[in-house]
Design brief:
The chain has 171 residues and is an all-alpha fold. Helix content is 59%, strand content 0%.
């Protein structure tokens, strides 16, 4: 199982980039796109973030396998194993960041995850941007970053109940 075609860092980087693209694309265009069953569940999550709505644990294992197969065919099994493993690892990191964003209020001691937590909470207050959870990179690429100052200018369908506890616009 020693890769002869690509060093480990290549498969690690490729898996990470692939996951972040999946995460951004699914969140923006599937969860916030057309009315589908998945979008309906995601809307429920926006209305009540405390409700546990999500894919069953075995879904991530299926996605990992579906990513391993073409990578093994195109490159080799070692590359595919690290590549698919990174997708699974990044999904776990995204799950931690998402859980912290909704369940650990006023947490600032999480290093880079603190900024990602704020980024995701701004998404919940506007709905019109900040689709990345584990990275802000694709929000910058696609121009969907919502900053704390800009959230007051976003013309999204936000009900007054969703904004309870928010202070006025920053000065």
């Amino acid at each position: 199982w020693v890769s002869t075609s690509a060093p480990g860092w290549t498969s690690t980087a490729t898996g990470t980039v692939t996951f972040t693209m999946y995460e951004y694309g699914l969140h923006r265009w599937l969860y916030h796109g057309r009315r589908t069953a998945v979008a309906t569940l995601h809307t429920r999550h926006h209305r009540d973030p405390d409700v546990l709505v999500g894919a069953p644990f075995y879904f991530s294992l299926g996605v990992t396998a579906l990513n391993w197969l073409p990578a093994a065919w195109l490159v080799d099994r070692a590359f595919a194993s690290v590549f698919a493993g990174m997708i699974l690892y990044c999904y776990a990191q995204q799950s931690v960041i998402h859980h912290v964003a909704h369940n650990w209020p006023l947490t600032s001691g999480l290093g880079a995850r603190s900024a990602l937590r704020r980024h995701h909470l701004l998404h919940h207050h506007t709905g019109g941007g900040n689709f990345g959870i584990s990275t802000r990179f694709w929000d910058h690429v696609f121009g969907t970053v919502v900053t704390p100052k800009a959230r007051w200018r976003v013309q999204a369908a936000v009900t007054p109940g969703e904004c309870q506890g928010l202070r006025g616009p920053p000065r």
